[in-house]
């Protein structure tokens, strides 16, 4: 079985979660999917970034939930990866989806706890869905999150979307929940074993592994029968 490759926060080539990393994930590495993380600004705009704070981008004192999109876009993010220094501007979810559409890759949209997108409040999710519609990606997109209630909301209101339940470790009830709610599962690679994959297969649940950056780990996951791997820089096999 051939594994589908997903670029983790785009790829290693560029500030993570920014346009350069996404474009290089599609063009340099040829990944079939590109993963991003979603946060929301104080003026309810959706941007790609892993944390509320901007420390990964070399800025210590500012946080996304307290800033407008215009204020964020005025900043220059800095990140050194594998001894290469990159700079970038913040990438909006709209821009990220435009890249996915242009290069014919599927978006894997990871929902972090954010204003209007969390277990207790999904009022901004329709805005995200409208962006998927705008870029004709509803049928391709995967919504990934560890927030179970958010996935139940999406399954109930947007049943056409593909969903993945993000887990570090997995219990039997997690796999059963995925079956019941028609979601696949995304697991930290070290916690995937043969019995787990067989259990998922028996319930029709596909298995994604994160974050896989060595050939030996990748080969183990191939042997186990995983369906997806998320990677920063592995070459597509």
Structural key phrases:
237 residues; alpha/beta; eight-stranded parallel barrel; two-stranded antiparallel sheet; 8 helices
Q: What is the fold's blueprint, element by element?
A:
Layout lengths: L3 E4 L11 H9 L5 E8 L5 E3 L20 H5 L3 E5 L2 E5 L2 E2 H10 L3 E6 L13 H10 L7 E4 L2 H10 L4 E6 L4 H9 L3 E5 L5 H9 L4 E4 L4 H10 L3 E4 L6
Parallel strand pairs: 1-2, 1-12, 2-7, 7-8, 8-9, 9-10, 10-11, 11-12
Antiparallel strand pairs: 2-3, 3-6, 4-5
Helix pairs in contact: 1-3
Explain this structure:
- It is a single chain.
- The longest helix has 10 residues, at 93-102.
- The model has no long low-confidence stretch (mean pLDDT 98).
- With 237 residues, the protein is α/β, with parallel strands linked by helices.
- α1 (19-27) runs parallel beside α3 (93-102).
- It has helices at residues 19-27, 69-73, 93-102, 125-134, 148-157, 172-180, 194-202, 215-224, and strands at 4-7, 33-40, 46-48, 77-81, 84-88, 91-92, 106-111, 142-145, 162-167, 184-188, 207-210, 228-231.
In terms of per-residue confidence, which ranges show pLDDT below 50 for 5 or more consecutive residues? none
Strand order of the largest sheet: 1-2-7-8-9-10-11-12
Label the structural class: alpha/beta
Number of helices: 8
> Topology as H/E string?
EHEEHEEEHEHEHEHEHEHE
Helix coverage percent:
25-40%
Mean pLDDT: 98
Our measurement of the CA-to-CA distance between the termini, rounded to an integer number of angstroms, reads 12 Å
Question: What's the total number of strands?
Answer: 12
Major sheet characteristics: 8 strands, parallel, barrel
Rg measurement, Å: 17 Å
Shape: globular
Strand content: 15-25%
């Amino acid at each position: 079985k051939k594994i589908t490759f997903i670029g983790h926060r785009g790829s290693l080539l560029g500030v993570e979660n920014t346009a350069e990393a996404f474009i290089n994930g599609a063009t340099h590495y040829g990944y079939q999917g590109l993963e991003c993380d979603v946060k929301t600004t104080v003026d309810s705009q959706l941007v790609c970034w892993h944390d509320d704070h901007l420390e990964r981008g070399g800025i210590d004192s500012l946080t996304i939930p307290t800033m407008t999109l215009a204020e964020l876009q005025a900043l220059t993010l800095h990140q050194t990866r594998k001894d290469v220094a990159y700079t970038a501007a913040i990438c909006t979810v709209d821009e990220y989806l435009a890249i996915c559409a242009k290069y014919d890759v599927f978006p894997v949209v990871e929902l972090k706890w954010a204003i209007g997108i969390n277990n207790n409040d999904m009022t901004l999710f329709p805005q995200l869905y409208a962006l998927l519609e705008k870029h004709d990606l509803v049928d391709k997109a995967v919504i990934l999150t560890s927030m179970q209630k958010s996935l139940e909301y999406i399954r109930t209101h947007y049943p056409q979307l593909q969903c993945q339940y993000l887990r570090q470790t997995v219990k039997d009830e997690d796999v059963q929940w995925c079956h019941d709610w028609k979601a696949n599962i995304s697991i930290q690679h070290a916690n995937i074993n043969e019995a787990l994959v067989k259990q998922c297969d028996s319930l029709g649940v596909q298995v994604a592994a994160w974050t896989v950056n060595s050939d030996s780990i990748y080969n183990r996951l191939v042997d186990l029968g995983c369906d997806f791997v998320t990677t920063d820089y592995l070459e597509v096999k």
